[in-house]
Amino acid sequence: MRYLIFVIALLGLPQAGLAGGGSNVHLDKVDIDLKDRESLRNGAKLFVDYCLNCHAAALMRYSRIGQDLGMSEEEVTTELLTAGGKIGDTMTIVMQPKEAAEWFGTAPPDLSVLTRVRGADWVYSYLRAFYRDDSRPWGVNNAVFKDVAMPHALWELQGLQEAKVETHVDADGHERETITGFTLVEPGSLSPEAYDAAMRDLVNFMVYLSEPSKLQRLALGKWVLGFLFVFFILAYLLKKEFWKDIH
Ligand code: HEC
């Protein structure tokens, strides 16, 4: 039992350690549905248009996205390969990590498996938590990842929001500021609801991206359960047959 508790605690650790940026921030839940192809396709488009300039996802190939999301070669070419490239390419970028580190202070990490590390709720909350902060190099800060080096890549869609801050004194007598919410001060091209829906699609795609075989597992799972069910009935009938004469 003690061993079990230890293992459970260990499993929780990486998430807890990485939750950082701002500690104990509130994360909003996102409703992930890998069977929703429309959402995954929309997410893929957003990812290519708004993230792939800076972040690579070098473990993924365009052709695989096409196969998994049921897109023809032509659809992949017109919707996802907007910046050129071939369908068999991996999702790499032109920017060199060294240049990027000079521009941003930190190189934008590869996003292939990031959502598996951070968790979907974290990424969803992060993409909706940029707010105006004139003291930062890009004029924005992030409530989920404090002092992040990333500009608000989606400000055209979301617009610009300001943080509502509450100050309170903690048990040690230190003043602490917590962000309790946001006010939209400059609207973007999407309404707040439409922006949240778009971010849900984007995170849905990023969950798929970080574990593409999940889609196949979901499909396979139904067959496995079906097999087990049939096998159970057969085993039961067999057992009855065997014990018939013994009782
Ligand atoms: C202009 C370049 C740029 C664009 C465009 C951009 N990012 Fe970033 N992003 C960065 C940089 C730089 C960092 C590193 C921040 C740091 O470590 O302080 C970052 C960090 C992140 C992180 C946090 C990584 C971590 O360490 O946990 C996530 C998640 C992320 N980006 C997602 C996205 C998504 C999704 C998009 C598309 C909507 C996007 N980014 C578009 C530059 C960019």
Would you kindly provide a written description of the structure presented here, covering whatever features stand out?
- The protein is α+β, with helices and mostly antiparallel strands.
- It folds into two domains: 194 residues, Cytochrome c-like domain (Cytochrome Bc1 Complex, Chain D, domain 2); 26 residues.
- It is built from ten helices and six strands; from the N terminus they run ααβααβαααββαββαα.
- The strands form three sheets. The protein has a two-stranded antiparallel sheet.
- β5 and β6 form a beta hairpin.
- α2 packs across α9 and α7 packs antiparallel against α9.
- The chain is extended and about 85 Å long.
- The two termini are 40 Å apart.
- It binds heme C.
- Heme C (HEC) binds next to α6 and α7.
Topology overview:
Elements: H1 2-18, H2 37-50, E1 57-61, H3 62-68, H4 73-79, E2 90-91, H5 97-104, H6 114-118, H7 120-127, E3 130-132, E4 140-142, H8 155-158, E5 159-169, E6 175-187, H9 192-210, H10 213-243
Antiparallel strand pairs: 1-2, 3-4, 5-6
Helix pairs in contact: 2-9, 7-9
The structure holds heme C.
